[in-house]
Every structure is written in C-alpha cells, then in structure tokens.
Design brief:
This protein is mostly helical. The chain is built from 9 helices and no strands. Helix 2 packs parallel to helix 9, helix 3 runs antiparallel to helix 5 and helix 3 packs antiparallel against helix 9.
C-alpha cells in the first residue's frame, strides 16, 4: 500500500515507459500511413473530422472512469475487511485472555489461552498466504506440529484453523471454564473471522470482466490513431506529439485503475497485508506479555509498505 504523498518520477516512468514507447511508434506509423495514402491521391475527398476523436474521447473518459471506480471499490472493500479483522483480532485476544475462568497463573488455563491466541495469529498468517498465493507457511510458527499437520490436510487452511478454535471453545464451555454468555460472544468472534475470510476470498476469486480491460485498451489505441490523423492537416508533424500526449493521459489513467483491481497482490498499490498481519501479531504477543516481539513491517524506499 502506498504511504508517501509525494510522486516519485522514477516510479512513474518505470511503470509507463513501455506503453509510452508503443505510443510513439503508433503515432509515427499513423502519421506516415496518412501521408502515404495522401500522396496516392486516392482519398482526396475524405477528411478525418476532429469530431471523431472528440466523441470517442468523451465515451472513453466515461468508460475509464467507470472501470476505475469499480476497481477502487474492490480495493476499498478489501481494506475495510482487513481493518475490521485488526479490530476483531484485538477483541478476540482480550476475550480469550479475560473470559476464561481460572487463575491466570494456573498453568493449564494459561496454556489454553496462549494456544488459542497463538492459533489466531496462525489463522491471520494462513489467510494472508492464501490470498497472495504464497507458500511461506509462517503460520507453522504458531501451531504445534500436530496442529499444522492436521490443517495442511485440508484445502482451506485458514478455515481448518478456525475449526480447531471452535473445537477448543466447545471443550472449555463443556468444562465450565466459560459461561453461556461469554461462549456466545467468543463464538460470534469466530463467526466474524469466517465472514471476513469469506469476503476476502470473494474479492480474490471474482474475476473483473476481462472484456472491460481488453476493449478499453483497443478503443484507446483507436482514439490515439484517430486524433493523430485528425490533426495532420492542421498541425503537420506536430500531430504526432498531440497523439502521444493525449494518448498518454488516457493510457496512464486506465493503468492506474487496473493497478487497484487485485488488492491482495504483493504490489505497491495493493493492501499492506504484511503490515496488517504483523500489527495483529505484535498486539496479541504484547497482550500475552511475550519478550520476543517482532519489529513492525518497514516502509520500502519511503513509498509503500507490503
């Protein structure tokens, strides 16, 4: 996720130089083709009206705006889901730590509390890996060998970890370590985690219609060629520069929206899952009074955090 309010020129150029180069080639080719056809005197009566790129540019502006708006909605929804996950994780850790009966110094009760909180940290890491498609298995650090071997037998590891949480919660309720009201509150938190996991998976697994991206790019290139042709008679070779500059605006605006389309990818514009996961881990470990606390995730080049 981007954290800097300043615009890095190098990042802009490194991200747009390819389509800028293709633009130059396309505008040069369009200008050359126009002059060649003009020299043949085949279409002397045909004039490329400026109304054509004007109408096409207006339609494209609306279409790109719609695409970018939908892409940002996906990104913002993902950010809200993980923001809620942070809040719920803190509440869950607090409820586990204080709702379970017994003296906190009692070894068995303390171990059960620590195990459930550790297991939640494992859930967050497993969910992050599932959304990003990585296999670092950081969640193993917070599960015993028996537990991680059991959850890795299932296709959805985060869901398998929640099953273990529900199983332990039911056990403590049957033992009388948790009364009915507190049991319902803790169970509600687990249901909430399942909902947040499902909403995240919905965003990741719902493919944005590929035709939107494909046809938008096709129409942008048609627009670039048409605006170059319409300006040749009035501006000559300067029409190449006009086509490049106007086309660059449309292509870059479209590219910005497409960068937000998949919020869980490990890219600068994506949701900072590493930072959020680490923040949850730190908060819960501090709640347990652990001495070994990992450092917060660092900002990369002062621009973004993963």
């Amino acid at each position: 996720m981007l954290v800097s309010k300043k615009v890095n020129i190098y990042s802009i150029l490194s991200g747009t130089w390819r389509h800028f180069l293709i633009e130059i080639i396309a505008c040069l080719a369009a200008y050359t083709l126009y002059r060649y056809v003009e020299s043949l005197h085949v279409f002397d009566s045909v004039v490329i009206s400026s109304k054509i790129p004007t109408i096409l540019g207006t339609a494209l502006a609306f279409f790109i705006g719609f695409n970018n708006n939908q892409a940002y909605d996906r990104w913002w929804e993902a950010r809200k889901i993980w923001g809620a996950l942070v809040n719920d994780s803190r509440s869950f850790g607090r409820q586990v730590f204080f709702y379970m009966k017994g003296d906190v110094t009692t070894e068995s009760i303390k171990k059960d509390k620590v195990r459930m909180i550790y297991r939640h940290i494992a859930f967050v890491y497993a969910l992050k890996e599932s959304l990003r498609g990585t296999i670092s298995r950081e969640y193993r650090n917070y599960l015993c060998e028996e537990e991680w071997k059991a959850v890795e037998k299932e296709s959805n590891i985060p869901n398998a970890i929640l099953n273990l949480q529900s199983k332990d919660l039911e056990m403590h309720y049957n033992k009388g370590n948790i009364d009915g009201f507190k049991f319902l509150e803790l169970n509600k938190m687990i249901v909430g985690f399942c909902d947040e996991m499902g909403m995240s998976e919905r965003i990741k697994n719902t493919v944005f219609p590929t035709t939107y991206n494909f046809y938008t790019r096709v129409f942008i290139w048609i627009f670039i060629v048409s605006i170059t042709w319409s300006a040749v008679d009035g501006m000559g070779a300067w029409s190449i520069l006009v086509g490049i500059l106007v086309g660059y605006v449309f292509l870059t605006t479209h590219k910005i929206g497409m960068a937000l389309l998949n919020p869980f990818e490990a890219i600068p514009s994506g949701i900072s899952l590493n930072q959020i996961t680490r923040a949850i881990e730190i908060n819960l470990l501090e709640m347990l009074g652990e001495s070994k606390i990992p450092p917060p995730e660092e900002v990369v080049n002062g621009e973004y955090i993963m």
